[in-house]
Amino acid sequence: MTRPLLEFDHVEVSFDGTPVVHDVSLPVMEGEVVCIVGESGSGKSTLVRAAMGQLGRHGCVTRGDIWYGGESLPDLPARRMRQLCGTDLALVFQDCLASLAPIRRIGDQVFEGMNAHRKVSRKECDRLALEMFERLGLDDPERVLASYPFELSGGMGQRVGIAIALLGEPRVLFADEPTSALDVIAQAQVVRLLARVNRELGTTIVLVTHNMAVVEAIADHVLVLRGGTVEEFGPAQQVLQTPAAAYTRELIAATPRLAAGCV
Fold it and tell me: How many CB atoms are closer than 10 A to CB 39?
C-alpha cells in the first residue's frame, strides 16, 4: 500500500497549554488536492502552520505527529525545517501582497527568497521568475517583476505569491485561504490556477478554505473541521453529495457559487 506523502497522525495543537485542535488525522497522497474546510476559528490554518513550524512561541504540537518523507516535522531542529520550508514545503498566504515588504520591488524579494535556499545569479533568478509568471498567466511579467507590491491588484498579488512559492519546486504547496480576500472572478482565476499547478506540475496541494464551492471545483479529498475537531473526511464528491455530518450540510447550503467554468 502506498504511504501518504504527508500525514497528520492524531494531531493535537495547543496554545499556552490549551488545546485548540483535537486528535486530527489526515493522510495526503502525492499529487492530490486536499481541502481543509470549516468556519473561522475551526483550526484549519493552525494545522497548516503546525506543519510549517509557524505556530509561534505560544503554540506547539502537544500530541500526535506530522509526518513528511519519513520525518516528524514537529521534532525537527530549526535548521532542518528551514531547509524544507521553501523547497519541499511552501506556503501561500491569504493576502500574499501583505506578506511582502511594501518598499521593495517584487524582483528583489524573489531574488532574496531564492538565494536563501540555493545559489543563483540575479540574471538567472529573473529568467526563472519571468518564466513562472508567464506560465501562471501574469500579463507583462517584466512590469510585475519591477513593481512594488502596492502597484498590483489582489488577484495579481495572489498569482505572484503562488509563483514565488513554486520557484522552490515544492512537493507540497499549502494554500491558506488564498481566495477569501478576492472578488468572485478573481477567486475563480486563482482556483483555476491552482488546478493547473496540480495537473501540470504534479504539485500536492493542501488548500484551506471555508468555501465549499472551492472544494467542488478542485478537491480530491476534503477534511471538515469544527471547533478543532474532525466532523468528517472522505473523497470530495462523496462528502459533497452525501455528507454524513449535519455541519457539512450547513456549510454546503451556505456556500455561494464560483464563476462558471473555473477549472
Answer: 14
3-state secondary structure of 64: strand
> Would you say 28 and 192 are in contact if contact means Cβ atoms under 8 Å apart?
no
Residues 129-170: tens digit of each pLDDT: 999 898 888 889 999 999 999 999 888 888 888 888 888 889
In sequence order, the 6+-apart residues with CB closer than 8 A to the CB of 248 are 224, 231, 232, 239
Q: Which domains does the chain have, with CATH numbers?
A: 6-253 (3.40.50.300)
Nearest to 26 by CA among 215, 232, 177: 232
Contact 3, 176 (CB under 8 A): no
Set of cell numbers at residue 30? 502525492
pTM score of the predicted model: 0.89
Q: How far apart are CA 47 and CA 183, in angstroms?
A: 26
Q: What angle do CA 239, 244, 249 make, to 5 degrees?
A: 75
C-alpha cell at 60: 506547539
Q: Which DSSP category does 3 fall into? A: P
Identity of the highest mean pLDDT range in 28-32, 176-180, 254-258: 28-32
Q: In what order do the strands lie in the sheet with 172-176?
A: 89-92, 172-176, 204-209, 33-37, 221-226, 229-235
